Amino acid sequence: MRILVLSDIHANLEALEACLGAAPEHDLVFNLGDIVGYGANPNEVAARVRELGKTFVRGNHDKACSGLISLDGFNPVAGLAAIWTQQRLTQENTEFLQQLPHGPVSPLPHVECVHGSARDEDEYVLVARDAYPLLEQSPVQITFFGHTHIQCGFSRDEEGDLWYTLVPKYTSRTGKQSFKVHLKQKAKYLINPGSIGQPRDNDPRSAFILYDTDDNSITFYRIPYDVPAVQKKILHAGLPDRLAERLAEGR
Ligand code: ZN
To answer: How far is the CA of 109 from the centre of ligand 1 (A)?
Structure first.
């Protein structure tokens, strides 16, 4: 079975369509949350992801933009974007976002999907130190997580050694690129597909992964998309300029 794992689309329709167009054939789609927030196409993206699959966890922006939580913890730019999104989401899409499940969800017996982490949906797992206790406690072989917008993975073998193996190595920052990793049977993994709509790992290309259960592999992808078109939409929509600028930088 081949599974497309998407995260942090953030209402970026052009990036989502570019990734779907470039993605290899697959059987299922897992979505790790933050479908909306920041970008100019929240309704279009919400409608599109609902067609793709049934496995979702909610992100902090999904909660904020559908009114489930206050904006107190948001920085001013994120807060303004959330208010902008609240005002434009249709009732149907607001309700769709409100009913998204709290992670972890377990779409396969050996897999969990979370937004931040299994113990806290808003936790940022950025470095090996953050990942270590999670890998120790995890009841499953693979946890897919998002939230940080950084494409990477952490792994722990059965002897308890920790290593930061899954840093995809790309030969350039342009064009479509992929990086395949074979998973070990007796190791646990935390894997972040990166962000479709707001990459923050110094690479402006959109990010996702394909998990192939047949050969037990993860393939990381980076896909270019029309960044200037998306920037123009964000500026015309009256969203904060910074949200457009950062797309070109990938941070
Ligand atoms: Zn996000």
So the answer is: 26
